[in-house]
Amino acid sequence: MGLREAALLLLLVVSGSHAFLATPLNATDPDVINILCPEQTTGVTRDHKWITREAIRRNLRQFFLDYPPLTEPGFNVPTDASLTELYRAYYGVSSSPVRFIKAVNSIAASNVKADSVRQLRFDPALNVDGERLDDTQETLADRYPQLLTSILQDEAYPAARSLLGLSLHTLQKFYSHSTWIEQGNDGILAGLGFPGFAFNATAGPGEAVCTPCSNAQGPCTGNVVSGGGLTTGYYQYVEEAANGFLVPKPSSEGKCSHGGVLDDSSSVPAEGGINKDTASPCFSPHYHLHEQAVELAVQATDHYLKELLDAVGNVRYRRLFDLYQGSALSIVIDTTQSMGNDIAAVQNQVALIVNASSPELYILAPYNDPRVGPLTKTDDPEVFLEAVNALQAQYGGDAPELFWHGLQLALSSTPDYGNVYCFTDAGAKDGGIMESMIALAQSRSMKVNIVYSGKIPTAGERLVTGIPEYQELADATGGLFIPSNKFDVDFITPILGDSVESSDVDITVLKDLSGVHVIDVPIDDSILDFTIHVAGYIDTAILRDITGTEYNLTDVAALESTPGVEVVALSEALIDIRWLAPRYGTWELQLESTTNYSLSVTANSTLAWLGDFSILDPSPPHPHYRPAEGRPLTNTVYYLEVILVGYLESDVIDVHLVEYVDVSGSLLRTIPYDEGIDDVFYIRSEPLPEQPFYIKLYGTVHSGNLFSRLQSVLISPVKASVEVLATSNDLSASPGHTAQGDFLVTNYGLESDFNITGTDSGKFLQYMEPSTIHLTEGGSGTVTAHFKVKTGTAPGTVSTVMVTAQSLKQTYSVNTAITHFLVVPKTEDDVRPTCTLANEPDCTGFTYNGICSQKNWTVEATLQDVGSGLSNVYARPDGFVSVVTGLDPGTKESVNITYSADCCTSQVDIIGVDSMGNVGKCEIDMGALGGYILDLEAEAVGETWVLLRWEITSSDLDLHKYRLLINNDFSQEFLCRETICHHNVTYLDPCSLQTFELTPYFYVGEDDRAGQPAFTKANTLDTDPEAPSNGVQLNNTLTTITVSWEAVNSKCISQFEVCYRPFGFEATKICERTALATYTLQGIEACAVYEVSVRALSPSGRRSQSLDFFVNSADAEPDAPRNVLVDLVREDSVTITWDDPLLRVQCIDRYVISYGEVTNTVHATALINARGQHYATVYPLLPCTNYTIDVSAVSKTGKIGPGVRREAATLEDPDPEPVTSLLVSDVTTSSLLVSWASLEKCIDHYHVCYYEPSTPYETCQDVGEKELHLQDLNPCTSYTVLVSTVSISGIVSNRTTLSSRTLDVQPGEPQNLRATEVTAHTVQINYDPPTTNPQCANEYDIQQIRLDTYRSATEPEYQHENIFQELEACTNYELRVRAVSSEGQASAWVSTNISTTEDLPSEPRNFEPLEATPNSLTLVWYQPDENGRCVKQYSLEWTASDGSSSGSSMVAPLDFQVEEVVSGLAACSEYHFNVTGITAYGARGASALLSASTAGCA
């Protein structure tokens, strides 16, 4: 494997040495070793982050010395004090430097971006490569006014830090990439990076500036041509994204290369290289100059910051670094009509907050619909209150408002790590920018809290957002969603004021909890106080400290009366309680609620941490850890950058664990860590989970207690990224002009369309193009933001730009790029203001410490800027008088300043700053003050001595002596004539703070004159403290014991460690620390003896021998016995057993047993004493009797504790007798009243069962009375009732039985009546029982009705199948059935109709002549007797007796009698007739015969 290939391998966890790259790398890692060659490295190597932080540290130390706290004019701080030590020395040991460190790291992170962002990392001008020095200066000079105006015009500090970091990167690179040092320069190039500067001696295109090194790789010296022009090295490598950026090394020999294992140009003549980035010869051929390059880079950075300070002034300079204790009071408020009373309440409460706190800034962002703003941003409380009181409820009408734009207004002006409080009672209609606002708040670590007093329906569209989205916002930023009653926001006042005054760290954050949760709360030694915040409706909230002492968080009266507890806010839906000076150890919090709630535990602590994800980028030009922009990607291995703020002051000994937990606290990832710790270190992460998570960091402090810190920003990994491609030049425009910038969207998820949205705080962004982009998995696409700046917009205005891409297929995959757009002036102004002194001050002979105060001087100066006009005029340092006249911001006229001071102020700058930030000065330098003490500090300390060191400037006055005032108590005088002096102060008290005031004295003539003193302080080392003495018990209660002791030689004692535990049995020892000589033991058992051990501790933690003594707690009622059981029961006794209680067992002297018979509610009580045993037999007792037995413990003083009651029943004898006189009465159709008689002794109850014969089971119940009303029975049913007695022990007697029948009711109608078989003379029918009360159908009445007549026949039947016989053929019948109960109650009839079939009819009856004529005969006959109804017609035939003629006819039948006239006959002739009935089917029945003669014979 070659060196280049090895260099591109994945780098692992960072710890150990650093490189002058963007970020530190682990030089000993196998995958990096060939790049940095640690075995060849000499000295300490540094990176851009270290250089930036070190320069800021030096700069701010001097700034603090120049402008000391008002209360400490002699303020001093050691030259090597860290950033956090500087901050706490200036603002106080309990102040939190988190915001300050975050601001410093933001500048350092922007510095790193120059090696990370693709449009920057390959730029040779930005990285000082490829002989582009003029381009480098042009880039820096163009950015400088942007940096200044972003501060001066808009106070846009996030943007300013970004611009500053980029400029510092290039400025620092100049000293490691150019030949400035090789040309013999040992100071910085002061003008570099400022407008108006130009290089005047750079190498020409053909000028040879380098000679070949002996090897293309490795160390190289002397290869820079002496006397040549200033140059930089060429840097070439294969990287597709670098195409178009890299400058190829000329083929002609004589040009320098960057050099190192990653530089392909190092093998092109002249071979080798010149970079001084590291102390490793593998990467940096001029590694031997690395230390010098680092020092010049630090000095140049410090100089750049001083120039910046001159331009922006002290106040803005402090804000650039977040150098203030208080936070901002930032309020977003809905001003629609429905918020009228809420606004009034907020106005009242804000006035209280302003009067009670000291915010650094006040921000007010009102909104409604359709208006947002105006924004109020001020440091003047009166201006803020005026804006708040001017709020009026107006507009609105439709519920959703412009909440997200109101929030955007506030976020754009609130400092990092601030709290924003939003008051609203409605949803939002502008949810399209929601994701951008969440991303902006998270990127700046701002907690957004929602105080909501309305009702919002669940939103149907993403653009209309409601409660779920407000909760998502609060969850994502670590804020709270606080529901409140309408017009009741006064409870929020203490929280707002509290957030302004403090900057807490997060211990635990849990969201969307419900039910019961038990949460551990680690309280470590660095915590000064902690606060529990619970948002939501809570049923139970109990906090237990390490002693077991409980605090009911819902009992405000108890909390307010408890020392060390402060009720910040307590309402129906919000708990905010603070514990001051808490006990160290793991506390336990128990919460219970039936609704959702959220928990946050914050603390005021000297220990905090900052964390960001980075990706290892091993590619050229400079391998480093690239910060992850936006939301991180799922299933990706990142490196967690850990910045421990205050870890030295907090005595942190290790960091051993990182956890990823979801919002409910469930563990998602565990990442052990066992490497070392530093200000900054890296931990290799596991692949990120897909669900949102918080990051928790665990470690140990010196006492052994666990510390836990959580980042409250909710990390939401996604599958898409948005990267800024546009440069700062792209993202800028002058008023009236347009601009556009590109952004790269990359999809790591499923192929999908992505919605592209953009927004910016200044409303310059017009549209995104395209608004939708289709990306395959792994695909990327460019989108363009189009901007337009309105005419009249002030140059220097900064707008925060957010471009968001969201997958339509995987909607959770949404990411946002955040950058800044800057309004630049139409015309460039790089001309500095002019400054002319009207007179020159003269301190000749008085520029010496000791006499300088004897002469004053005054100077007048005139300043003017004809370009952009003067914006500020002032003098540094402050003098006696500084009067400025004629200054109106932007004036191009002359401005005068009169300045007065004494000659102790011998160096003064009168400064004019124009509107573009150009600085002009009149520099007054009357020489350094002679005899002035510099850098007085403690060089070394011992237990009883401090070695002081200082420098003193040269003076023409003879030094007579030094006078050292020690602790404002005693002084020493001595003489040291050296420029650098040492003095050892002895006989000091150990373990204590020593203050020193050193005053030089000079001979002035024959007088002795004191000069200006210098101040410093130091702590002497500890000695082992002596053990305390005389430990005594002062008082005791049931739960506390107060003890005291005396300190012996208290000078070395900073606090005492008190440990205690119960004497005589195993228990955990509890140890705590106190600064007092008294201590109250908490959470102790009553009636107990405790062993107490007290040790004295020195400031560094050295421990004395222990003072041991015994104390006892107060007598108290014992707790209730446990496991009380009825052990044995007889007819006349009960034996009961129990165990000692868990608590207060030591209070027990004996047990008392009371018992009594239960007679209704009256107890006749007797007592039994049980001493030294855990059982008792109660006797004599009655059999079959209920007793209550109470067991209580009694203390030695007779205090009776709570009892435990048990019930017992003595056994019965004899067995219960059966019941007698079983009777049934009050019988109805559905009930029976059953009663009986019995003997009462030993009977507990009666067991009554009943059943009916048709069912196979019994219905039973137990009753205590001697009767039972059986209800809901079936009518017409016989029931068998069985009654037995049951004894107390459950023994059942024999049964007594009785049967009885319920009364009848009318049965229902028979069902499904039908004819199953029909013949000519029979019909068979069938039917089903009734469905209603079928048991009541005892028999059935059956009838048939001939429908052709009104004759009827009734025939009772008792079966369900019936046959009707002897019916007439061819006849219609109605058949009827009804059900009849045994008591004769009948149902309604049900019927069906049928017709019998046909049968052959018999002969017609009574066939005879009725009338005769000569030519006719009238015949008559009647229907046949049998089956006559089947005849449908008759056949009539006749013949003459002589056979002469015959005939026939068909005669339709009449109903009963038929007459037929036969005509056409012969007179006086005899005829023979026969008539036959014919059925419908043509069957012929029997014939009837007749002979008859016609008339006409006479």
Give the SSE layout.
Layout: H1 3-7, H2 33-36, H3 48-66, H4 83-91, H5 98-113, H6 118-121, H7 133-152, H8 157-177, H9 290-320, E1 328-334, H10 340-356, E2 361-367, E3 376-378, H11 381-389, H12 403-411, E4 419-424, H13 434-443, E5 447-452, H14 467-477, E6 481-483, H15 493-501, E7 505-523, E8 527-536, E9 540-544, E10 550-552, H16 556-560, E11 565-571, E12 574-580, E13 585-605, E14 608-617, E15 624-627, E16 639-645, E17 652-661, E18 667-672, E19 680-684, E20 693-701, E21 706-715, E22 720-724, E23 732-733, E24 738-747, E25 752-760, E26 765-769, E27 772-775, E28 780-788, E29 798-807, E30 814-823, E31 834-837, E32 856-864, E33 870-876, E34 881-885, E35 895-902, E36 907-914, E37 919-925, E38 933-941, E39 946-952, E40 958-966, E41 970-974, E42 980-985, E43 993-1004, E44 1007-1010, E45 1014-1019, E46 1029-1036, E47 1041-1046, E48 1055-1062, E49 1070-1074, E50 1078-1081, E51 1089-1097, E52 1107-1112, E53 1122-1129, E54 1134-1139, E55 1148-1159, E56 1162-1170, E57 1175-1178, E58 1186-1195, E59 1204-1209, E60 1220-1225, E61 1232-1237, E62 1243-1251, E63 1259-1263, E64 1267-1270, ...
Parallel strand pairs: 1-2, 1-4, 4-5, 5-6, 23-30
Antiparallel strand pairs: 2-3, 7-13, 8-12, 8-13, 9-10, 9-13, 11-12, 14-15, 14-16, 16-19, 17-18, 17-20, 20-21, 22-24, 24-28, 25-27, 25-29, 26-28, 29-30, 31-32, 32-35, 33-36, 34-35, 36-37, 38-39, 39-42, 40-41, 40-43, 43-44, 43-45, 46-47, 47-50, 48-49, 48-51, 51-52, 53-54, 54-57, 55-56, 55-58, 58-59, ...
Which labels suit this protein?
7-stranded antiparallel β-sheet; elongated; 16 helices; mainly beta; 6-stranded mixed β-sheet; 1498 residues
